[in-house]
Amino acid sequence: xxxxxxxxxxxxxxxxxxLVSAFMVVSLKNIFHxxxxxxxxxxxxxxIFVLLDAEFLAAAQVLIYVGxxxxxxxxxxxxxxxxxxxxxxxxxENVSVGVFVSVxxxxxxxxxxxxxxxxxxxxxxxxxxxxxxxxxxxxxxQYVLPFEVVxxxxxxxxxxxxxxxxxERS
Amino acid sequence: MSSMDITFPxxxxxxxxxxIFLFLWALFxxxxxxxxxxxxxxxxxxxxxxxxxxxxxxxxxxxxxxxYGSMFLFEPAAKFFKIIFLGSAFMAIGSSFGITKExxxxxxxxFFGLILLSTVGMMFLSSSNELLSLYIGLxxxxxxxxxxxxxxxxxxxxxxxxxKYFIVGAFSSALLVYGMSFLYGLSGTTDLVQMKINIAMxxxxxxxxxxxxxxxxxxxxxxxxxxxxLPPFHQWAPDxxxxxxxxxxxxxxxxxxxxxxIAFAKIFVNGLYAFNGPEMAPNDxxxxxxxxxxxxxxxxxxxxxxxxxxxxxxxxxxxAQVGYIMIGMxxxxxxxxxxxxxxxxxxxxxxxxxxxxxxxxxxRTGSCEIQSYAGLSHTSPVLATTFAVFLLSLAGIPPxxxxxxxxxxxxxAIKMAQADATAGWLYWIVGVGLLTAVFSLYYYANIIKVMxxxxxxxxxxxHYTFPSFGIVLIGIAGVIIFGLYPEPILKFxxxxxxxxxxxx
Lengths: 170, 504
Description:
heterodimer; A: mainly alpha; Four Helix Bundle (Hemerythrin (Met), subunit A); about 75% helix; B: mainly alpha; two-stranded antiparallel ribbon; 20 helices
C-alpha cells in the first residue's frame, strides 16, 4: 500500500464522482445521458474496489456492469426508436415523499454508524495475494451447492425471459 | 486466511433427493411440452402434479440429516415447510387447468415448469441455515413468480402485476442483501449458527456493535417484509394479486409467504435470537415485528371491508393473516414456532381452496367482482357452500382448522407473557388480534350474505370440472378434518421447534 494520505485523496475524489454521476443518472431528462453517467458511476465504484485491494471485484465490476449491463442498456436505448432524443421526466408526484424517505434513511444510517466504535478498531487485515485463486476455490468447493443452485436460477430466468419476450402466433 | 482451510462441508446428496427430483421433473415438463406433437391442454399440468406427488413421496422417505454442511440441513422444520410448498404448488397447478385451457395456449409447459422451479427454490430455502444459500433460494423462489405473475401477456393488468412485483422484489432483495452484508461484516461468517458464536467471541458491547445490529435487523425485516407483505411493505400485494392469474395469486399468498416465513424464522429465531449483546433484551426485534404484525392485522382487516374485487379482498385478508402468523413468530418459545407451522398449514387449505373457487368462478364468468357472486347459492349450491366454509375457516370460526390456528397462536403468546414478565407487550398484540378478528368476520360474512341471501338467483351456473373441483374438495377435507382432529399436525408442528433449539 502507498501513503494513506494519497489514498484518502483518491477515495474522496472517487466518492465525489460516484455521488455526482449517480445523482445525474436519476435526474437527467435524456435517458442516453443517464446511461453514460451510469457507466461513469460504475467505473468509479470499480476504482473504490481497487483502493480496497479487491482487484478481482474491480475487474468483475468493469466486465459485468460496465462491459455488459451498461452497454446492453445503451443498445436497448439505441434500438428503441426515438428514445435517445426524447425528453423524459424521471419523477412523478410522489417525488417529495421519496426524497424525504431516502434522506431520512441516509441520515439515520449515517448517525447510527457514526455512533459505533467499531471503526476505531485496527484489524490485522492483510490483503491476500491471488484472491482469484482463493475465490475460485471457495466457489467450487465450499460454496458449490449455492453455485449450482444459481445455475437453476439462471435457467429459470432464461426460460422466463423467452416466455415473456416471444412474439405469439395467434 | 490461507487457501488450505477451504474444504468440502459434510455432504450427502440423498438428503436433497426431493429437490433434485423436482428440478429434473421440471426439465422433463419443459421438454415434454416442447416436443409433444399433439398439444393436449391438460397433459403438462397432470405431469407437473404427478411430479409434485412423487416428490412428496420421496420427501416422506427421506431421513433427517446434513445434505451440504449448514447450507442444506434436512430437519423437521424443513420437512414441515416442504410439505406446505409441495401442497400449495399442487393445489395451485390443480386449480389452473381452466386458465391453461382458455387463456394460456402457447406456453403451458413453461407455466407449470416455472411453478415447479419456484417450488424447488422454496425447498432449498427451507433447508438452508446459511445466508448465501438462503438468499439464492429466495431468489429462485421469486424470479419464476415474476414471470408467472405477468403470464397473460395481452392483459394490461397482468403485465402491470408482473412489473410491479419485479420492481418490488428486486428492491426488497437489495435491502435484504444489504442487511445480510452487515451481519457478515460483524461476524465474518455466513453460517447462522456460527454467526452468533463469532459475535459473542468478539466481546463487543451493545454500544459498540449494537446499532449496526439494529440496522441489519431493520434492513432484513424490510426485505423479508416485502416478501411477507407485512405493512408498511404491503402495497404491492393487492395490485399483484388482482392482475396475476388467479392460481398464481394463490401460490403467492401461500407458498411464497411460507417461504418468507421460514426465511424469517431461520434468520431471526435461529441466527439473531441468542447473539444480542448484554444490554440488548432478547426480544428487541420482537417488539418491532410485533408492531408490524399489529399494523398488518388492523390495516388488512379494515381495508378488506371496502374491497369490491374478490382477489383484492383476499389480498388484504392475506395481509391480515400474516399479522396473526407473526404473533406466533415473536412469541419465541416452542409453542409459538409450532403455532406458526400449524397456522400456515390450516391457512394453506382454506386460502388455496378459496382461490380455487375464485378461479373456477372467473373461468366461467370472467368476473372477479364480489357483486357477481350474488345469488350463487340458488344455481351452484355446492360451490357457494364450500366457499362459505373456506371463508369461515379464514375468519377463524370453530370447529374449522382456522379456528385452532388462531387459538394456538393466541394461546402461545399468552403463555409466554405469563411466563416472562418482560413479554407483557404480547398481551397487547393478542388484544389487537382478537379485536381485528371480529372485524374480519364482517367482510368474510359479507360474501356469504351476497351468495346466500340474495333474492334473485345468479345468472351463472358453474360447471364442476376436474381437477379444479378436486382441489376444492381437498381444501374442504383439510379444513374440516384438521379442525376436528388437529392433534397429528400439531404434534408434527411441535417438532419444528426442535430445529430452532427450543425443547418442546
